[in-house]
Each structure stands twice: as C-alpha cells, then as structure tokens.
Amino acid sequence: QVQLVESGGGLVKPGGSLRLSCAASGFTFSDYYMSWIRQAPGKGLEWVSYISSSGSTIYYADSVKGRFTISRDNAKNSLYLQMNSLRAEDTAVYYCAREPTRGEFDYWGQGTLVTVSS
Amino acid sequence: SYVLTQPPSVSVAPGKTARITCGGNNIGSKSVHWYQQKPGQAPVLVIYYDSDRPSGIPERFSGSNSGNTATLTISRVEAGDEADYYCQVWDSSSDVVFGGGTKLTVL
C-alpha cells in the first residue's frame, strides 16, 4: 500500500533552517510527480512546491521562493524540503503528497509540524 | 492570481443531501479536485477531475463542474462525513490553488 512518511519537523528560531524528509513506499516513486503542501494552525491548505518525477522541473509558491528548496532522491525513494530563513508565518504542518497527474494529489503523508518561534 | 471561494460552513441533517460549492472564474474550464480532512488527519482525495471517485470512496460522494461553480454533493449524509472539505484546481498562472475550505456539520 502507498505510504508517505514525513519527518524532520520541530521548533526553530526565526531565520533558522530545517530540512524535511518524506519517505515513500508501496509504489514506484520515480514514476510520480511530488509536492509539499502546508497547513498553518487552524487554517486552510497552501501548496508550497512541486518537483517532477526526474527532478528536472521545480516550482515554488511565491511565499517560499528563494528560501525553500525541493529535491528528491529516486534511489532512496525520498523527497526533501530544505527550508532556510524561516519566518513565523512558515509555522505549519507540512505534508508531502503524490501527484499522479499535475495538480492532483491522491495520497498524502501524515504531516510534520514546523514551528518557527523565538 | 486565481481564487476559489467556498462557504465557510454547511450544515445538514443525517440522511439528507449536502452540497458544498466552490466558485471561481470560469472554473468549468478547469479540472476540480475535492479533499476531505477530519480533525488531526491528513486530507483524503474524495473526488478528482470534477466527478471521478477514487476507489474506496462511497458512491454517496459526487461532483459536478460548470460555469463559475463546482459542487461536491454528499447524499445520505452520515455522522462520519463531518469534516472540512477543500476544492482545488491547477491553474497555468497560479499553479495549485485551494479553496478556503468548508466545515461540514452533521446536525
């Protein structure tokens, strides 16, 4: 069965960095687009970043452009999100999600909480 | 940027039909996906490409999309359907866009 398991969240000070990971299993990871989506406490869903199956095409939301970097290692069935220059408004649960087609998310991980606070 | 508008809340009695709308400029020309999110859980895809249901999603869930409004319809509502529901599209200029979410309350 498809499984996506995020890790790497935690408490970080403003201006700090964090690297999230998403371990995929139960499907051929290298065949799928992937995205990171976040949800601030008590708020709605916000798409963060996309990476193509090969990693050759990447997109970011304007809110994180220049600060976040998405990457993947198909040999390790893993997706990553390097987050730098973190701000209080980046506080959220971060989900990785599988995209069978662009902009459709059929499986989501359980999420990892990132808290940016001094 | 492209905006999707959902009502903040919808209430329905058990056994009745709930309709959750998602408004957007000419949304009928786009593909709409719907997600259900229960408290403390990750979102679950319940409708994709306007009206298709993933395996495991009850037939009570259906979707439609035309003009400026997409609609998620839940027939014979059950207590277990109480959740937040989000519509979502992919737009060439805005990339992935989510609606603000609708809290479905089963009375």
UniProtKB/TrEMBL annotation, chain B:
Give GO BP annotations, semicolon-separated: adaptive immune response
Which Gene3D superfamilies does this entry report, sorted A to Z?
Immunoglobulins
Localization, UniProt: Cell membrane; Secreted
Q: Where is the Ig-like domain?
A: 1-97
Its keywords, alphabetically, are: Adaptive immunity, Cell membrane, Immunity, Immunoglobulin, Immunoglobulin domain, Membrane, Secreted, Signal
The main place the protein resides is: membrane
Q: Which PROSITE patterns does this entry report, sorted A to Z?
A: IG_LIKE
Cite a single Pfam family from the UniProt record: V-set
Q: Where is the signal peptide?
A: none
Q: Which GO terms describe its cellular component?
A: extracellular region; immunoglobulin complex; plasma membrane
The record, for CDD domains, names: IgV_L_lambda (cd04984)
> What InterPro entries does the record tag this protein with?
Ig-like_dom, Ig-like_dom_sf, Ig-like_fold, Ig_sub, Ig_V-set, IgV_Light_Chain
Question: Which PANTHER family does the annotation name?
Answer: IMMUNOGLOBULIN LIGHT CHAIN
Name of the protein this chain belongs to: IG c445_light_IGLV3-21_IGLJ2
